[in-house]
Amino acid sequence: MYLDGVQEVPCSKGGVFKNKLLGLKEKRGLMKFLTSIMQPTEQDTQTLQEFQEKPFLEFLQSQQLSANVIKFILYSIVNEENDQEKATTVNTADAMARLKLFTSSIGRYGSTPYLVPLYGSGELPQAYCRLSAVYGAIFVLARTTQSLEILDNKCVSIETETEKISCEHLVGSWEHLPNFVKPDSPIFKVSRAIIVSDVPLLPLDHDTPNDLVALSIPPNTFGNTCNISVQQLTDSVGVAAPSFYLIHFTTPSTSPTAKEDLQGSVEGLFQHLSSRVNPEEGKAGIIWRSYFNILDPEIQADTPTNVHVVSRPFFSLTYDQAMKKAEEIFHKLCPEEEFIPKVPNPEDIIFEVGPEKEEEKTEVEGEVEGEETKPQGNEKQENEAKQEQETETKKEETDEKEGL
Predict the structure, then answer these.
(1) SS3 for 98?
(2) In sequence order, what are the beta bridge partners of 293?
(3) In this structure, are residues 189 and 296 in contact, taking their beta carbons and an 8 Å threshold?
């Protein structure tokens, strides 16, 4: 988190007491709060119930936590996007669900609660394609949707350049289904920036690994209206050249362009990062940058019943929102099936063999055993004949030597 510089978020007992920004009283208060979440007493549970539908900020303030600790929890752990002092958009129940997910994920696969896909998030659709192909999915490549055939408020087929493909359901993003966008509706936007840099967010001599970093910039830090989520990736996950850093900035849009939302924070952060670099090292800081917006318009209410329009992932670091939407659509497509069932342990898999297969298997084994008996007998006779021939040859050689 950026708070008077880049600070490590204290989310474990060791991290709390190593933190240099928090005082001793703040550390004790944070540890008491985390303990009440992970191992709640009856009094803790009762207090939490009273604040379920109230703003999460009020609950944190009731715990007598300092302003810095509240910022750590709100904008780094809960990852709330809006300035909670101006617009309390998250209630205690929703925030606690995020907080428990965060704390329960720490230490599961490493020291952080996050997992990052190799080669970027574009590998996730490829993983889906490979998995679905195992279960018989068919992919039609190099085709563009020209039109949809709608009958009785249902999409029955898709027209491409060369053929018509029948369908029972149609799932797609609004970019591919623009006819279902509600005209003149308000459009929710997310502002993005992608930076290529030769300066890392954490110093190279930092105690923790500094290649993969998740950073939050709280509201009003660099004049930003909302919380800004920052992610640093490197060549360790195959998305950047060695010694370079790919850094993503994401925030809800409050200005006409992404550049207006993010430029001040990008330049403010890199000014701080460049200040700790020795000028003789020749570091440039920002090598390349790009600002852009992601749009999410409102969908018409009278969309055909079997057409499912999805949105892109937004501000959150995780794919929880996308997974919930995927599960919702899945149950509409396959109401009696389980959504992403757990892969069974190979040792627990039992292959059942029917009576007919068992008889067939026994006959085949009998035939194989009969065939194996003959070669074994013939081989024994051949070996005995070979041994007799070798004995006679040796005897003849001995007689010749004695004659000499």
Answers:
(1) helix
(2) 191
(3) yes
The Cα 74–Cα 227 span in angstroms is: 10
Residue pair 310/172 in contact by the 8 Å Cβ criterion: yes
pLDDT digits (tens, 9 = 90+) for 215-249: 999 999 999 999 999 999 999 999 999 989 999 99
Other CB atoms within 10 Å distance of the CB of residue 204: 7
C-beta separation of 7 from 15 below 8 A: no
What contacts 89, CB < 8 A, 6 or more positions away?
80, 81, 82
- Nearest residue to 262 (alpha-carbon basis) of 271, 245, 250, 272: 250
381/214 Cα distance (integer angstroms): 76
Interatomic CA distance for residues 107 and 110, integer angstroms: 5
Q: Which amino acid is at 54?
A: K
Q: Name the amino acid, one letter, at 45.
A: T
CA distance 372 to 337: 48
CB 135 within 8 A of CB 274: no
Question: What are 151's strand-pairing partners?
Answer: 154
Helix (H, G, I), strand (E, B), or coil: what is residue 262? helix
How far, in Å, are 14, 50, 93, 265 from residue 46 at the CA level?
Answer: 28, 7, 13, 41
Q: What are the tokens at 52?
A: 């379920």
Closest Cα partner for 1 from 213, 203, 277? 213
Give the burial class of 280: count Cβ atoms within 10 A of its Cβ; 0-12 exposed, 13-18 middle, 19 or more buried: exposed
Name the one residue in this structure whose structure tokens are 């930092």: 206
Report pTM. Answer: 0.78
The per-residue pLDDT for range 71-110, each reduced to its tens digit, is 888 888 888 888 867 666 788 888 888 888 888 888 788 7
